[in-house]
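Risk register update: the risk of archive-format incompatibility is retired. Evidence:
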Amino acid sequence: MTYPSPPPHHAQHQWQQYPQAPKYAPAQAYAYPVYGMPAAGPPRFLPPEYQHVAASDPTVRVLASPGIRLGARLIDLVTQLLLMLAISLVSIALAPADEPEIVAAFAVPLFLASIFLYEPLFIWRKGGTPGKLWLGIQVVRCSDGNYPGFWAAFSRVIVPFFMSLVFLLGLLNVLWLLWDRPLHQCLHDKIASTVVARRS
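Archived output:
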């Protein structure tokens, strides 16, 4: 059984009541020329407010907002503190009570590993730390949208560490994304050639 088509005024009414979601303008997508890339080209990155684009166009990555990045950083900070607390408790439980130097010898290398390897290893293997992945964002290369290599991920940790030793430079590194355009990068992102984007 076939049903007659709705009259033209009905179709017009439906269009006015349920308009199609607007698409982003091509001029607002940022493409980066990379030698040796396939014909499809590198990904395009859009500002954080273009959330609707990610579901409709897989070649476009939407950048993470500063608020989400801050939330992910706080989650990772709490995670690292809990990890260091667990290391301390295990070290105290295993070492003799009258030999505290053994506790230090066992715990300090693990502390350093948790500080400097936590983020690089997760980003290298998973594209993001637990905090970032939980909030739906990840670190990708500007050139091809893939996970950065270990050393690029490591530079995102070691560079802020040394910047924090200089008065206000560490704060400037973090705040840089508030005015950096078009990629909303911190200074350590620029050095590593990475961006933080919503997971595709």
